[in-house]
Amino acid sequence: MRKPQPKTNGYQIVLVEWEDSQRPLSPWQWVDEYALPDAVHCHSVGFLIAQTKSALALAPNLGDVECERAQACGIIRIPRSAVRKITKL
To answer: Does 31 reside within a domain?
Structure first.
């Protein structure tokens, strides 16, 4: 017997692997001594609630899913240029 699936208003749950920049360094430093840091490799999981050619939006939390209009909280916008892989879960 199949387990009942949670209601998601049709939003797909995905894992997005993407690359983020490092935070800015605040102290003054000599340019010739600067070492370029590695990018931060990120994994984000959530409901894919919007997407365009330039970005996608994931929401880790959905509410009022039994209503006509769902709510979302904690939405993150990820630029398409940063996305390395999307896996449907």
So the answer is: no
* Domain residue limits at 6: 1-20+39-89
Rounded to whole angstroms, the Cα distance separating 89 from 86 reads 10
d(CA 69, CA 58) in angstroms, rounded, equals 17
Return the structure tokens found at 72: 């979302």
CATH number of the domain encompassing residue 8: 2.30.30
% of the chain residues with pLDDT over 70: 91
Query: Would residue 32 count as lying in a domain?
Result: no
Q: Is pLDDT at 45 greater than 60 in this prediction? A: yes
pTM: 0.81
Which region holds residue 54: left if phi is over 0, alpha if psi is between -120 and 50, else beta? alpha
Measured from the Cβ of residue 14, the count of other Cβ atoms closer than 10 Å reads 16
Residue 54 has a pLDDT of: 98
Confidence (pLDDT) at 77: 98
